[in-house]
Amino acid sequence: MTESIPHTSPKTYPCPRCGTKTAWQDNKYKPFCSSQCKLIDLGAWANEDYTLPAETTPFSDEL
């Protein structure tokens, strides 16, 4: 008796830059869909387009 292996489609995810559905397996630009999206995202970081929220705390002169 032979067992058939269920055919599963490759896992896909949206590119964080453009939203295009992309297969995860064998994608050398993970998590992006292409080198273009990867470079655009790198440029956004270099231009400081992304920021992290931070609380402002007064500096203390106490030592």
From TrEMBL:
Binds 1 zinc ion. Its cofactor is Zn(2+). Keywords: Metal-binding, Zinc. GO terms for biological process: regulation of DNA-templated transcription. Zn(2+) binds at residues 15, 18, 33, 37. GO terms for molecular function: DNA topoisomerase type II (double strand cut, ATP-hydrolyzing) inhibitor activity; zinc ion binding. Inhibits all the catalytic activities of DNA gyrase by preventing its interaction with DNA. Acts by binding directly to the C-terminal domain of GyrB, which probably disrupts DNA binding by the gyrase. Interacts with GyrB. Belongs to the DNA gyrase inhibitor YacG family. This is DNA gyrase inhibitor YacG. It comes from Psychrobacter immobilis. The gene is yacG.
